[in-house]
């Protein structure tokens, strides 16, 4: 019985252990299920967050796309409104001009009719008055005629008597006759001599010291220069203290172009020395590349005087242009040293006569110019400067003996120019009282960067950039130019140039549109 009890206890204990094991197994399984649920919930939360993030991203991108589209639509609408406004303004100006012309025509017509009616009324009034007073007027005229006749007869009688007595006394006196003849002869000679001398002197002064109206700048001495600077003017007239100089002084050019221009300078100097005919020269290329500077240097180097005129000054003269051109060449012939006549913006005047853009007055002026330059001359040398030589008249091109193209400076030339103008305007300014600029943190590396950024600049643009650096430095207390100001000035200069190019392109397009409309 006790063993049965023990067996039962053992079985009971075994069952309890099995139940405990199952319970532990169930707890572990429950724990595993809870872990799996937690992981599933975490995964679901992560996916939900990713989906929400992706949704927000798509929504933001869509809003950004809508905003950009709205900006583009707004800019297009503004451009359309500006174009419409410009079109309306042009139409309004055209209407106003048409109304002004019509008003002027109506006013002129009314004024003419009024003057005609007034004149007619005055004439009718005078006729009516003369008809009514015909008898009175006739009697008055008769009385006045009789009185005038008596007065004239009396005066003639008295005058004849006095003249006869005086002439009789004068003719009987031989000394008076001789003195009178001598004085009359002397007065006639004096008057004729003074008149002739005044004319010759006036023409000489005008030819030697006057300046034609077409000439904007000249190295020849004028009356105003003699009054302002008598000593230097006298030296220039006599040739004292004046020496030739390098034709390319202060000009930085590409090596091949430099060599070509030096040969031209030497050839021109020898041509003048040997009194041979001068060869006419065309300098063409973009603005600001040194064409005018070379022309002046060529004149100084060869011992010639120079005169500068602009092609755009001739057209406004109208009918007087022919006379002024003849005066210009007559003045050029009076130069003892020879004259280099530099025509800047020559394409504005020397356009082809085949085009319809040239007026009759300008055509006549061009014919006069061609007449004056048709033969070789040892008295003057023509140098033309143009950005568009293709517009020249065929006869003008035939008179050009040599052509030289001035291109924009390359990197090597820009490096020389930047160094040259920094030295000229910053480190050693030309004015004696000008303060030198102190540069801070500006060395070879910074200058090299400026050389790279100024690609497409002309020599004049680089010179203006250096002047802008000088102005920026003078805007500080100690005339200091630091690195930041150095580069910001370059960027501002580039921005200004870009804006000018845009304006110029717009003007060209506008001119083309107007030409097409016509």
Automatic annotation (TrEMBL):
Coiled coil: none annotated. Residues 43-65 have a biased composition (Basic and acidic residues). The keyword Metal-binding does not apply. Residues 40-65 are annotated as: Disordered. Keywords: ATP-binding, Nucleotide-binding. Transmembrane segments: none annotated. One of its GO terms (biological process) is mitochondrion organization. GO terms for cellular component: mitochondrion. SMART domains: AAA. GO terms for molecular function: ATP binding; ATP hydrolysis activity; zinc ion binding. PANTHER family: AAA+ ATPASE DOMAIN-CONTAINING PROTEIN, PUTATIVE ATP-ASE. This is AAA+ ATPase domain-containing protein.
């Amino acid at each position: 019985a006790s063993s049965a009890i023990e067996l039962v206890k053992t079985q009971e204990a075994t069952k309890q252990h099995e139940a405990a094991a199952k319970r532990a197994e169930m707890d572990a399984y429950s724990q595993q299920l809870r872990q799996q649920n937690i992981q599933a919930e975490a995964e679901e939360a992560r996916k939900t967050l990713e989906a929400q993030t992706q949704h927000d991203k798509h929504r933001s991108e869509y809003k950004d796309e809508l905003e950009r589209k709205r900006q583009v639509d707004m800019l297009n609408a503004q451009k359309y409104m500006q174009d419409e406004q410009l079109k309306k303004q042009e139409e309004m100006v055209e209407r106003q001009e048409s109304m002004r012309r019509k008003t002027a025509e109506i006013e002129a017509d009314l004024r003419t009719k009024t003057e005609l009616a007034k004149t007619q009324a005055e004439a009718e009034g005078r006729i009516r008055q003369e008809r009514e007073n015909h008898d009175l007027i006739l009697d008055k005229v008769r009385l006045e005629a009789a009185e005038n006749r008596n007065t004239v007869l009396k005066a003639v009688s008295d005058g004849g008597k006095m003249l006869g007595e005086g002439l009789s006394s004068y003719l009987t006196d031989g000394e008076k006759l001789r003195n009178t003849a001598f004085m009359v002869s002397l007065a006639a000679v004096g008057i004729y001599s003074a008149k002739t001398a005044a004319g010759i002197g006036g023409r000489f002064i005008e030819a030697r010291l006057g300046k034609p109206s077409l000439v904007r700048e000249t190295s020849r001495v004028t009356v105003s220069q003699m009054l302002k600077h008598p000593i230097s003017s006298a030296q220039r007239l006599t040739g004292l203290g004046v020496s030739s100089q390098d034709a390319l002084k202060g000009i930085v050019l590409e090596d091949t172009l430099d060599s070509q221009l030096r040969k031209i300078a030497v050839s021109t100097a020898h041509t003048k020395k040997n009194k041979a005919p001068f060869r006419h020269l065309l300098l063409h290329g973009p603005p600001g590349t040194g064409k005018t500077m070379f022309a002046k240097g060529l004149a100084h180097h060869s011992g010639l005087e120079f005169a500068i005129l602009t092609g755009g000054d001739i057209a406004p003269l109208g009918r007087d242009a022919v006379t002024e051109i003849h005066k210009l060449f007559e003045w050029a012939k009076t130069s003892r040293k020879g004259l280099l006549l530099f025509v800047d913006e020559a394409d504005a005047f020397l356009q082809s006569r085949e085009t319809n853009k040239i007026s009759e007055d300008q055509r006549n002026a061009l014919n006069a110019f061609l007449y004056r330059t048709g033969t070789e001359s040892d008295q003057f040398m023509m140098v033309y400067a143009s950005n568009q030589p293709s517009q020249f008249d065929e006869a003008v091109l035939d008179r050009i003996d040599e052509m030289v193209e001035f291109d924009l400076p390359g990197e090597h030339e820009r490096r020389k120019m930047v160094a040259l103008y920094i030295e000229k305007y910053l480190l050693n300014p030309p004015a004696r009282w000008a303060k030198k600029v102190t540069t801070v943190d500006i060395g070879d590396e910074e200058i090299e960067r400026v050389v790279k950024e100024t690609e497409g600049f002309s020599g004049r643009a680089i010179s203006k950039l250096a002047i802008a650096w000088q102005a920026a430095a003078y805007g500080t207390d100690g005339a200091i130019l630091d690195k930041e100001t150095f580069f910001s000035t370059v960027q501002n200069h580039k921005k200004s140039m870009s804006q000018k190019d845009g304006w110029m392109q717009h003007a060209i397009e506008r001119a083309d549109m107007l030409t097409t409309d016509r």
